[in-house]
Structure formats: C-alpha cells, structure tokens
Design a protein that fits this description.
single chain, mainly alpha, 71% helix
Amino acid sequence: MPSITVNVDDDLKDQMEKHPEINWSEVTRQAIQEKIETLEMMDELTNESELTERDVQEIANKINEQGRKHVEEEST
C-alpha cells in the first residue's frame, strides 16, 4: 500500500498526541475516502451540466450570502 505524508501544525500535533488511542492514519484515510466519494458524486451530478465554473461560483456565493444573513438574523 502506498504511503503519503501529511503536514500539520504544532498545535494540532499536540492535540493528536493527547489521544494516542486514535489511529490517526485511519482517520486521515477515511477523511480522504469521504472527500473522494463526495467529489465523485459531484462529478456524476455535474457531468452533463451546462453550467460554467463561473455560474457555479455565482450560485455558491448567493447561497453563502443567504446563509450568513440567516445566521445573523438568528443571532440578533
């Protein structure tokens, strides 16, 4: 099985070392696997899409802005 190296900052490494019972390699492998599955699903959903990258970014920006407004309203 191939190996990869993951760099983390000192604070994160200190926190990880507080939990020696955790197999951090497995946690990392699972996170990568989940991300790959999400990307594959997005590729499948957008495979025949006529939207451009710019269109998608504009939609994402609008969603993010609405989300921020909602959080702000809930906070007040």
